Amino acid sequence: MKDMLFQYLKNYTNVPDEALKEVIEHLPVRCFKKGTILLEQGDVSSKCYFVLKGLIRQFSVDTDGNENTSNFYSENQVASVYNPQRSHEASKYSLVCLEDAILLDGDLNDETQMYAKYPFLETMVRKMLEEITSNIHDDYADLLSFGPEERYLALLEKRPGLAERIPQNQLASFLGIRPESLSRIKRRLNPLK
């Protein structure tokens, strides 16, 4: 399974394969059951996960007790809410496994030591974060400029198969619409179902 991570990381560096494999061998692989809370809103985060298999939901609970889904992380994605500039602040989000998951479980407290031992890591991680940030900006722009149906269609196009794995109420929350509206959109797009 670590081959998936190797292929992912190769997109961000041109270091010799042996050096990259050595880094990957330091990362523990862990299995988590569906429903496992990886991070609770209000806790301080020091973990970073790479999804080898499974699905993670990122959400927050507002002052009225409503859950607001802000992201889903599936295979070949990094799931983290860690911010080194605010490393001791409480997380505004929770992370929970929506499916049984196999994750690479990185401890961000080891980041400095890993950068010292493998200097190429810092540049590689910066490139990864730039791409992740760019994707977040694109998704936010879609949320602001697209109507509900366009947001749903954009999700289907950008992340094929993901919508079928997510409970309707959580998918609707992620799209910024009510579950009933999502049902109407689905019926309109697939009248035979």
TrEMBL record:
The keyword Transport appears for this protein: no
Molecular function, one GO term: kinase activity
Keywords from the UniProt entry: Kinase, Transferase
Membrane-crossing residue ranges in chain numbering: none
SUPFAM superfamilies: cAMP-binding domain-like
InterPro entries: cNMP-bd_dom, cNMP-bd_dom_sf, RmlC-like_jellyroll
Region forming the signal peptide: none
Residue ranges of every copy of the Cyclic nucleotide-binding domain listed in the record: 11-87
A Pfam cross-reference name: cNMP_binding
Protein name per the record: cAMP-binding domain of CRP or a regulatory subunit of cAMP-dependent protein kinases
Organism: Anaerocolumna xylanovorans DSM 12503
Lineage of source species: Bacteria, Bacillati, Bacillota, Clostridia, Lachnospirales
